[in-house]
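Thread: sanity check for a docking pose with flavin mononucleotide

Original post by kr_44:
Hi all, I'm comparing my docking run against an independent structure prediction. Below are the sequence and the ligand SMILES. Could someone generate the full complex and paste the structure tokens? I mainly care about where the ligand ends up relative to the chain.
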Amino acid sequence: MHDADGAPHRLHPLLAARWSPTVFDAGHELEPGDVELLLEAARWAPSAGNSQPWAFVVGRRGDETHARLVRHLARSSARWAPSASLLVANLAHRHVEGTDWDYSEFSAYDLGQAVAHMTLQAASMGLFVRQFRAFDRAGVAAEFGVPEHWEVTTMAAIGRTPPGTTPDDTTRGRRALDDLRWDG
Ligand SMILES: Cc1cc2nc3c(=O)[nH]c(=O)nc-3n(C[C@H](O)[C@H](O)[C@H](O)COP(=O)(O)O)c2cc1C
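Reply from moderator J.T.:
Ran it for you. Here is the predicted complex with flavin mononucleotide included:
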């Protein structure tokens, strides 16, 4: 959970405890209202010009949307994502030059921020999120009739981890704090 420099003692506990599992509890069901809360967190994310250039395909394990999303997972994500309680495909309303479509050139930035909000909201509810790109984006777009000016960007698997599951810190190294400052 912590990098080689030691525990980030003053980091907010939700941030310090967040990690992205590849093992989910296949028996865990979300509570009524959980999906709406997660979407509410995304809804209140900031965005360029308040453009809110995001949309989400949301499938609960066991429902039809979930089954349709699972069809497009890559071999790697198919090993762990289907057992999460929720699968979400994250869509950005993208910038299309030369058209009069409503757009934001910051849509990918804004979508990422909305998913980050959702991720921390999930953490506050005792849920874990693994965001991922290992799926067929064109396949999901075709499956759900996503038009050209929207981009299926990433997916997120959301759920509980089985008791005793811990992060593999050897795969979670971080760049040094000093390395984050651009001195020019
Ligand atoms: C845009 C994005 C794409 C990712 N794609 C994948 C993926 O395809 N497969 C995977 O196992 N993890 C994927 N991840 C998870 C990252 O590997 C993970 O967040 C990173 O290793 C840091 O670990 P942590 O989230 O536990 O801190 C992705 C994360 C993001 C934000």
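The chain has a mean pLDDT of 93. Hope that helps with the comparison, let us know if your pose agrees.
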